[in-house]
Write a structure and sequence with these properties.
With 398 residues, the protein is α+β, with helices and mostly antiparallel strands. It contains 17 helices and eleven strands. The strands form three sheets. A six-stranded antiparallel β-sheet has the order 6-11-7-8-9-10. Strand 3 and strand 4 form a beta hairpin. Helix 9 packs antiparallel against helix 10 and helix 15 packs across helix 17. It is globular.
Length: 398
């Protein structure tokens, strides 16, 4: 499994430009910019809930921008569920965008079946393990307004936010279970995170506030943020104290830190000039059957691609940290180091692979490249395939 750090797509925000003009580094300027954002929204980076929405009391809807997710043109845009409509914004979330585009290319009906607009203006998003997350419109618009998602329609942003919540909730449950708490306390807190959006939101916002730019957790900041989030009048003091006690344990902090390092984009964490991530995480979230293929043996990779694409399996590929010293495989101007791409097709006659950059560019106008198989093996180190039904794998073996 590869954890990769992609290069930054050109970042267009004025504060960063000013910082660069003063001679500061691109990465440090971005970190400073995001920290300034945290002071105003009370959360850190991409997937934190929008500052405009107050925490709603149980049974009361959150107050945010009015978005009619029931209107197809709003949710799905002009293109509908289409990989060409998936466009990554100015943040290193390539592995999630590439996965969404790949699934949309192979099974758009499956994507449509994941999204369930609710009467209260939210969207319920279902996952392969049977769980689901409720996504609020202002969280989606928050990412759009800051330029993190340039996709057609809002469906990609909804899936991105749902994936972030899914990862965060699972990590918080694991962190609670890692602490040496009484069985009763553990069960109570786990139920609170799994079944109560009020408790989960408090945990989630606090963890994001305490997550640094490189994925470290600041214990003092976490405790302070938790106290703030748990000070709502409808959360009993006894429960709030149990939550604070659990979060102070070393096992809890280590488990959360491990989760952030494995899925940094879901927590708004960054490394160096980009963000890390694994191709397996988002693919496994929505498709229960996963296969991984190394490109070391190009002949075996060619055969594997043919079988996987013949059975309509969604596929993504992770590019290498650097190209071999001498590739001699034609132009590589499409290539971005440590980046995720959607694998859309393979043509045996011309021995070429069709890939798509989730930026929707490089190359323009849509990010599509048709590259020789030799260039594919030289530029990528592994491919991940996912499918919803076991018969897809059987078909691919034929």
């Amino acid at each position: 499994m590869t954890l990769f750090t992609e290069q930054w797509k050109p970042f267009v925000m004025t504060p960063l430009r000013r910082a660069r003009e003063r001679g500061r580094g691109r990465a440090s300027a971005l970190v400073r910019y995001r920290r300034r954002q945290a002071l105003t929204c009370g959360v850190l980076l991409l997937f934190a809930p929008a500052a405009a929405r107050a925490v709603a009391a149980p049974g009361k809807p959150a107050h945010g921008p009015a978005v009619n997710f029931h209107k197809r043109s709003v949710l799905y845009g002009k293109l509908g569920i289409n990989p060409m409509g998936v466009r990554q914004g100015a943040i290193g979330s390539c592995f999630v965008f590439a996965t969404i585009a790949s699934i949309a290319a192979k099974d758009p009906k499956l994507v449509g079946g994941m999204l369930h607009p609710q009467p209260d203006g939210t969207v319920q998003v279902s996952f392969a393990d049977g769980s689901s997350e409720i996504v609020h419109p202002d969280d989606v618009l928050y990412a759009r307004q800051l330029g993190f998602d340039h996709s057609d329609g809002l469906w990609v942003g909804v899936l991105m936010r749902a994936f972030a919540q899914h990862v965060s909730r699972s990590a918080l449950v694991a962190a609670i279970q890692a602490e040496n708490l009484s069985p009763w306390t553990t069960a109570m807190l786990v139920r609170g995170v799994e079944n109560s959006d009020t408790i989960f939101t408090a945990w989630d916002r606090a963890v994001r506030t305490a997550t640094g730019a490189t994925g470290e957790i600041a214990p003092v900041t976490l405790q302070r943020a938790l106290k703030t989030q748990l000070s709502q009048p409808w959360i009993p003091d006894a429960l709030a104290n149990e939550v604070l006690a659990a979060a102070s344990g070393s096992n809890f902090l280590q488990t959360i830190t491990d989760a952030v390092n494995s899925n940094p984009e879901a927590f708004g964490a960054y490394r160096a000039i980009g963000s890390g991530g694994s191709l397996l995480g988002p693919m496994r979230a929505w498709l229960p059957h996963i296969r991984l293929q190394s490109t070391k043996d190009c002949a075996a990779t060619r055969h594997w691609l043919e079988r996987a694409l013949a059975s309509a399996q969604a596929m993504t590929a992770a590019s290498r940290r650097q190209l071999p010293a001498a590739t001699n495989n034609g132009t590589m101007d499409w290539w971005v180091a440590q980046h995720a791409y959607s694998v859309l097709d393979y043509d045996a006659g011309s021995d070429t692979v069709t890939i798509r950059n989730p930026w929707g560019e490089k190359p323009g106008p849509d990010g599509i490249s048709h590259i020789p198989m030799a260039s594919f093996c030289a530029g990528f180190n592994e491919v991940v395939a996912g499918y919803a039904r076991p018969q897809a794998e059987e078909a691919g073996k034929q």
